[in-house]
Amino acid sequence: MEAEIKTIYQSPICTVQNFLCQCKECTTSGVEQTGHFSMAYIRKGSFGFKVYRNELEAYSGLFLICKPGFDHRVRHIHDVPDQCTIFSFAANSVATLTQHGSTLDWFFRDPDIHAILVKATPEMELMHQLIFNELHKPRQQHLWLEQMMTELFLKIISAEDERRLFPSLSNKQKIHYLPAIETIKTFMYDNYATNVKLSELAAMAHMSPFHFSRLFKKMTTAAPYEYLTHIRLKQAQLQLMYSRNTVTDIAFSTGFNSLEHFSASYKKHYGKSPLATRS
C-alpha cells in the first residue's frame, strides 16, 4: 500500500501516527504486518481489512483494533483516499489499560480473533477530534492531551455491544454519503453552541431532511439531534473539569436554552449533576 505515515506524537502511553493513503487505484495490498497493538480511527474513506479468512468492512467513524504480529491485506473499495489516526501501544501499556476492566476481554483472550471494529460513539468521535486538533498545534498541552487519550482508550475498550454487525454500506453510500456525513459531523464539532436546524444540515449534505436524518442515524447510530446533544454535553463536561466558568455560563455556551434543561440532560447522561463533576 502506498501511504504517507507520519509520527505526530510519542509518549510512554502511546505513539500516534497520521496515515494518509496515496494509492491511485482500487487494488489489494501485499501482505503487511501490524507490529504493535493498535487502535486506528478511520477519519475518511473505506476499505476491506483482511486477516486470514476474515475480512472487516472498515469505514469512517469506526475504530479498527488490531493485535500485533498478524499478517493482513487491505482491499481498496474505491478511489476515495483513506485517512486514519493510528494509536500504537507497547505491551505494558495494553496490560495497564485492560486492568481497568474491558468489555473486550473476549477479544483479548481469543487467539483466533486478530482484529475487530468498534463503532465510535459521538463522544468518542469528539474526543478524537479534540486530540487530533491538539496534536497539530505548535505547542501542545501534554497533560491535558494524555488525559484525553487515556479516557478515549478506556471508552473504546469498554464500548457496548462490540460484536454486533455494523450497517453494510453500498459502494454508492461509501463514495457519496460517508463524506457528506463526515462534513456534517465536523460542522457540529465547530458549531455545537448554535441553534442548528435539521433543514440546514440536510441542505449542506444535499439531501432531503428525511433522507439525511435516516442516513445520519444509520451511519452514526444516533439521530442528528441526539448526536449534537452528546457533543454539547461532552464539551460542557470538559469545561467543568478544566475551566472556572460558572455552571450557568457553561450551559449557555454549549448550546442549551436553560440551566434546568442542561442540568437534567447532564445528570441523565453522566449520572451526576454538573456541580458534582467539580467536587
From TrEMBL:
Pfam families with a match to the protein in the record: HTH_18
One Gene Ontology MF term: sequence-specific DNA binding
InterPro entries: AraC_XylS_family_regulators, Homeodomain-like_sf, HTH_AraC, HTH_AraC-typ_CS, Tscrpt_reg_AraC-type_HTH
Record-annotated HTH araC/xylS-type domain positions: 182-279
Entry-linked SMART domains: HTH_ARAC (SM00342)
SUPFAM superfamilies associated with the record: Homeodomain-like (SSF46689)
Protein keywords: DNA-binding, Transcription, Transcription regulation
Domain of life: Bacteria
Gene3D superfamilies linked to this entry: Homeodomain-like (1.10.10.60)
Secretion signal span: none
Protein name: HTH araC/xylS-type domain-containing protein
The species this protein was found in: Chitinophaga parva
